[in-house]
Amino acid sequence: MKGIHQLAKHLDISIGTVSRALNGRPDVNAETRRRVLEAAEQLGYVANQSGRSLRKGSTNVIGLMIESGKDNVDNSDNFFFGVIGGLQTVFARHNLDLAILPCPSEEDPLEYLQRMVARRLVDAMIISATQKIDKRIDLLIEKRVPFVALGRSHSGGSHTWIDLDFAGVANSAVDRLISKGHRRIAIAAPTTDINLGFVFVDAYRAALERHGLTYDPALVLRARSSEDGGYSVGGDLLALAPRPTAIILIYELMAIGLYRRLMEAGVKPGCDIAVIGFREAPRARFLQPALTCYRLSLQDLGTELAETLLSSMPDYAEIYSSHACNRLWPLDLVPGESDAFELAP
Amino acid sequence: MKGIHQLAKHLDISIGTVSRALNGRPDVNAETRRRVLEAAEQLGYVANQSGRSLRKGSTNVIGLMIESGKDNVDNSDNFFFGVIGGLQTVFARHNLDLAILPCPSEEDPLEYLQRMVARRLVDAMIISATQKIDKRIDLLIEKRVPFVALGRSHSGGSHTWIDLDFAGVANSAVDRLISKGHRRIAIAAPTTDINLGFVFVDAYRAALERHGLTYDPALVLRARSSEDGGYSVGGDLLALAPRPTAIILIYELMAIGLYRRLMEAGVKPGCDIAVIGFREAPRARFLQPALTCYRLSLQDLGTELAETLLSSMPDYAEIYSSHACNRLWPLDLVPGESDAFELAP
DNA sequence: CTGAAAGCGCTTACAG
DNA sequence: CTGAAAGCGCTTACAG
C-alpha cells in the first residue's frame, strides 16, 4: 500500500479526509488537518500527479515550448533564462510549475506541440518565435488549450500575445540616424519566416518613407541571428557601393560579429559608420565603442507573459482579467558611442 | 464520451483492443490494427498521459533540472542547449520526452527536486552543477529515482555521473605554461561550493607541485562565472605584485571580461601575459588574439549522458549496459595565440 | 466534520 | 484474436 492510502492508514482516518485536509478544504476539523499536514510532512507525502491530474483534468504544469535547434534560441544570449524568472514569480503564487519543452530539431514543431497537447502534459502553453503563418496557433485554438504567444502572427485571428515593439525600435533607430544626417541606412534582418523580421523591415521602410527617403531592398542584409551572422552582415555592408553610413541590427549578438568584421577592414563603428544594435545584451555590453541599443526587463516581460496567460485560463481569469489584452512591449533607448557622430551634410 | 472510449465506439470495437493496437501488441489482427491506427491519426487521438501514467506507473518523461538563477546556467553560453540536442537524439529512440525543470531562484533546490520527484512528474532525472556536498543525490538514491549527475560530488556514495575532465584541463594548462617558461601562474576559480571548483584548483595545485613549484593561495582568484567575473579577475591579476605571467580560467565567458580589463590597462594577452581559457565557446571565438582553450562536443556529451541515464533505468538497462559507468569527459586543446610566447628564462 | 463510493482514462491479465 | 473487468492514485459529490 502506498500513496494516500498509506498516509490515511497511518493516521487511521479515511483517504477522503486526508485529501480534503491536504487540499485546504474548509470542512475539516482543525486538529485533524494539523495531524494530516504534520504526518504528510514527516513521511514526505506529495500527491501523485497522475492520479490527481486524471481526476481533476488539470496538471498544474505550464509548458514553455522552445525550439532548441533554432538560431533565435541558441543565440539569444539567454533571453529565455531571464524571462523564466518572471514567469515563475507569477506561477509560484498559484502552485503552478513551469516545464520547458524543447522541440527536437528533427521534429516538426507542429507535431511536437500536438503531441504535448494531446497527452495533456500541461494545462497551458507559452509559445515563442512565432512565424508569419504559424499553425501552432490554430492548433491551440482548435484544441482549446489556453496559451499566450510571445510574438505576433497572422494566424489564428484573435489570440493572446505579447510582442516586443520591433516597429518602435525600427522607428526610433531610423529617426535617430536621420537626425544625425544619415541618408543611406542599412538594416540586418533574419533569413527565416519569423514574424518579427517582417514587422521590423516594414517599420524600417515606413520610417524611411516618412522622411522622404526611398526604400532600397539592397540595404536589407539577411543573416543568421548570431555573431557569425553579424560578421557576414559586416562583409555585405562593406561590399555595398556606395557604402551605407549606418546600420540597424535586429539581434543582440550580431553586433559582436559585425564589430569584428568592421575592425578587420579598418572601419571603426562610431566614427566611420553608425551602428545601432537591438536588445542590450550582457555580452554586447563589453563592446567598444559602446553600442547604442535598446533595453527591456526580461523579468518584467516574464511576469506580464505569465499574467496574460493566466487571464486566459478559466481558473484564474477573474484574478488576472486586467491582463487579458495583447501588448507591445516597449524598449528603451540606451545611447552609446556607436552612432555618436554627425554626418557632414 | 472522449478519449479511448470515443475512438473505440467510432470503430465499434472494445477499448482494450484499441489500446493493444495502439501500443503495438502482437496479439492484434493486422486489419484491426490498421483501422485503429488510421482512425487515431484521423481523429488526432493521443493517449492521455495521466491515465497512462497512473496505470503504468511511468510517465515517459525525463526531467532535466536546472537552476535558472545561477551564474553557471545564465553565463554558460548556452551550454545546455547544446547538450539537450544530444539528449533528445537518444530519448527519441524510446519515445521518451525531455522536460527541462527550472528551479526558481527563490526555492531551495532540494525542496524543488523533492516536489518534482514526489509528484512523479518524470521517470528519471538529470541533475547538474553538483556541489561538493549535494543532498539532491542522497534524495534521488533514497527515493530510488533513476538519475545521472553531470558533475561529481562527495555525496551519495556510488552513483552515476559524468563530469568534464577539469583536472585534465588544469593539468594540461599548467604543463603547457610551464613548458613556455612560466613560473608564476594564476588561476580563476568559482566563488561557490560547486564541486568542479575544488577539482580544478586541486589539480592545479598538484600540477604545480609536480613541477616543483609552490602553491600560492594568493594566486587563486575567485570570481563569478561571467564576463563580469572575468573583468574582476583582470583587476585582481593586475593588482598582484609581482604580477603573474599567466592565468588559467575556469569558465568560458570569463575570457571576454578579462581581455577587456587587460586591454584597458594596456596589457596584451599573448604578449604581456599568457591566458588559457576553459571551454571553447562560440562567443569567445571572436576574441583577438585567439584564445587558447579546450574543446568538447556538447552533442556527444548529451548523447552519453542520456545513454548513461538509460543504463540505470530498469526498462532500458539491458540495451545500455555498456554505458553503465561513470566517465570523465575529455576536452581537447585548441591552441590559440593568447599564450603563444616563450618567457625569457 | 467524516466515511464510503464513484469515476477520471488508461493498460493488462484473464477468459473465451 | 477480442471483450469485459480490474485497478493505477487521486478528488469530490453525497449521505450521515
TrEMBL record, chains A, B:
SUPFAM superfamilies: lambda repressor-like DNA-binding domains, Periplasmic binding protein-like I. It comes from the Bacteria. GO terms for molecular function: DNA-binding transcription factor activity; transcription cis-regulatory region binding. Keywords: DNA-binding, Transcription, Transcription regulation. InterPro entries: HTH_LacI (IPR000843), LacI/GalR-like_sensor (IPR046335), Lambda_DNA-bd_dom_sf (IPR010982), Peripla_BP_I (IPR028082). Pfam families: LacI, Peripla_BP_3. Residues 2-56 form the HTH lacI-type domain. This is DNA-binding LacI/PurR family transcriptional regulator.
